[in-house]
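> example.struct
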């Protein structure tokens, strides 16, 4: 098992920026002015759309496609960056408490209440470091990725023994690797960055589990699927979190990197399918990718034949183009929107449903599979 003790090794937690907003709370559909002040000892670089709205469940809520991949300007010491954001009027991001995060420099964040605040909102929040990217949960084989902790309070927080980040196999079993957090401090309204113990792992789906004692909400455990991939970058997103409300639905959407490896060319439509399951297992795809669901699961089969007995809406079809300006060369993305998981009734409340999606590009014959996502029926 990989075991990383991070104190004095790799974690980065220097507070270097401050983030303020023109009003808080803000009404649904309201527009806020966001001010980032560079209080560090040096210049920081930023692009457009650097500020994003995050859900407490570890999801990016708004905007869907933040344009944060190209560095375009430098913010001098003492400089101020002013941006505006119009929040959603309905749906995810229109009610409750969220985390407003700007990744410039060493990062800055705050709690933003849209309308009435959410109950029991934690002080600390855990996300993949690449949460601002289209596919934040896809990790190139051989690369050590990073996880971040964000602190929305006005006081620094120091982790205690037992606080940790673990990489787990999909189906349980021994922990693959652990990053120990005891003694590390997340600065007030700031970010702590820690490495995932993923170096040397083969291409496969895994889970990241973060555990910590939160000063406002007690013990917190967050699980997030990741994909170590060689080809076929893809992610399923849940902008409203990962709980399906009783009598309601949970929105999902998917983004796939174009499988046709020709830069500067608009991507072809991909065929996609989002599936639900309850059994542990994987299904290999042509080309080496792996779906983190098993075709032996009757619910997975039902997802492909009858939309899981009506529990899924718009879970299959053709993607639409979603070009994003990325690092050179320009690459194209496709997306599938307006997918919904419908609550099947209170008899199944408390059930954890395993979600993943696949896509196929007909010209190249390329396949892509998303990470495993686990959602709970309220």
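> example.seq
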């Amino acid at each position: 098992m990989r075991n990383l003790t991070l104190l004095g090794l790799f974690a980065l937690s220097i507070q270097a920026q401050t983030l303020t907003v023109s009003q808080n709370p803000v009404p649904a559909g309201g527009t806020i002015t966001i001010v980032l002040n560079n209080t560090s000892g040096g210049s920081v670089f930023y692009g457009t759309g650097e500020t994003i709205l995050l859900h407490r469940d570890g999801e990016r809520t708004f905007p869907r496609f933040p344009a944060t991949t190209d560095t375009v300007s430098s913010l001098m010491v003492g400089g101020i960056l002013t941006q505006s954001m119009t929040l959603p009027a309905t749906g995810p991001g229109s009610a409750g408490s969220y985390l407003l995060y700007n990744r410039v420099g060493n990062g800055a964040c705050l709690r933003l209440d849209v309308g009435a605040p959410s109950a029991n909102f934690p002080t600390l929040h855990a996300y993949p470091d690449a949460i601002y990217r289209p596919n934040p949960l896809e990790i190139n084989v051989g690369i050590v990725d990073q996880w971040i902790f964000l602190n929305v309070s006005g006081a620094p927080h120091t982790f205690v023994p037992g606080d940790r980040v673990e990489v787990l196999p999909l189906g349980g079993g021994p922990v693959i690797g652990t990053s120990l957090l005891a003694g590390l401090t997340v600065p007030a309204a700031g970010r702590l960055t820690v490495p995932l113990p993923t170096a040397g792992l083969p291409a496969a789906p895994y889970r990241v589990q973060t555990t910590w004692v939160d000063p406002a909400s007690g013990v917190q455990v967050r699980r997030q699927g990741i994909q170590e991939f060689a080809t076929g970058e893809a992610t399923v997103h849940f902008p409203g979190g990962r709980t399906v409300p009783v009598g309601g639905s949970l929105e999902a959407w998917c983004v796939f990197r174009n499988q046709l490896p020709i830069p500067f060319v608009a991507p072809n439509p991909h065929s996609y399918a989002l599936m639900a399951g309850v059994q542990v297992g994987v299904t290999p795809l042509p080309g080496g990718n792996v779906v983190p669901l098993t075709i032996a699961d009757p619910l997975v089969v039902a997802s492909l034949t009858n939309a899981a007995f009506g529990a899924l809406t718009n879970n299959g079809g053709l993607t639409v183009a979603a070009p994003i300006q990325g690092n050179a060369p320009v690459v194209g993305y496709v997306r599938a929107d307006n997918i919904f998981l419908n609550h099947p009734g209170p008899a199944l409340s408390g059930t954890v449903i395993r979600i993943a999606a696949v896509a196929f590009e007909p010209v190249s014959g390329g396949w892509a599979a998303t990470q495993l996502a686990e959602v709970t029926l309220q």
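> remarks
Confidence is low (pLDDT under 50) at residues 5-10, 325-330.
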